[in-house]
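Weekly modeling sync, notes
Attendees: AB, CL, MP (scribe)

Item 1: holo prediction request
CL wants a bound-state model with 4'-deoxy-4'-aminopyridoxal-5'-phosphate before deciding which constructs to order. AB pointed out that an apo prediction alone won't tell us much about the pocket. Agreed to run with the ligand included and paste results into these notes for async review.

Input as submitted:
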Amino acid sequence: MITSPSPGLLVWLDGELIRHEDAHTPIWSNHYGFGVFEGVRAYRTGKRAAIFRVKDHTARLFRSAHILGMPLRQSWRPTDIVQAQVDVIRENELGDAYLRPFVFYDGVRGLTPHTDQLTLRVAVVALPWVTDTARPEERRGISVRTSTYTHNHPNSHLLRAKANANYMTAMLALAEAKSSGADDAILLDQDGCVTEGTAANVFSVRDAEVWTPPVTSVLEGITRETILGFARGMGLEIREERFTRDDLYSADEVFFTGTASEVTPIREIDGRSIGGCEIGPVTRQLAEFYAATVRGCAAQAHKWITLV
Ligand code: PMP
């Protein structure tokens, strides 16, 4: 669970470390939700924090900016933004933490943001991450609802980009799911096929086959890719194909993957229990493998870890 910024927290803004309370941006910088961002996790490993797949997240941030036509590459190199993330973890002496790099303009006043008059701004904020012990039921899995909101169409929202405005639908879907007593939502596309959660990719397991929707309709999740690699290594058959909500209802196991959600088992969908409401063996093994990897305790971990 992400916590609130404490007084004196240092954030990186346009190349400088400053106090969170001094990090002001123009009121217009929020306009139209035009911007891109990342969500990255750091984990306490012994004395030093380790940032998981920070180069891959930073590469996605640059791709997102490029897709939206934002000139991030003209001002910054990926190595600068990786270093900014290392610096905010180190200078705030954080261990388990959530990093949020943001790229935005200082003031979009009209619908033509690609103009020379705008200044591109980059911020990196890190907040302590606290495990939510108040919700022990999440260890058994969460309940989700199929949303009444249709997932963003790839020709309207450019789904390869992790863009601020893409999250309007996710926020509406999450609010709807929570108001009906569920923990999260799964969104379907315009044809009724399963896409993803509000901030996570979705997987199902049936008869030793692992299914997940293709990346044409979902965010190309970094955790998704990590988990697909683990599943292949376990000898499981991978099916990156479209499927429908009733495929989820009849699956043996269903789980979400994401930087924040890691591997989150789903025990109930639309009031139907999944696989007897217990965490399934594949989900459990993948979750344990993932937890060991992000903390640097697995053989394949070192290539993905940046020590602070
Ligand atoms: N889909 C959406 C819509 C997301 O917001 C996220 C979280 N970034 C994911 C999937 C999972 O992506 P990742 O594993 O890279 O965090």
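Recorded for review: The CA atoms of residues 160 and 215 lie 8 Å apart.
Action items: CL to compare against the apo run; MP to circulate these notes.
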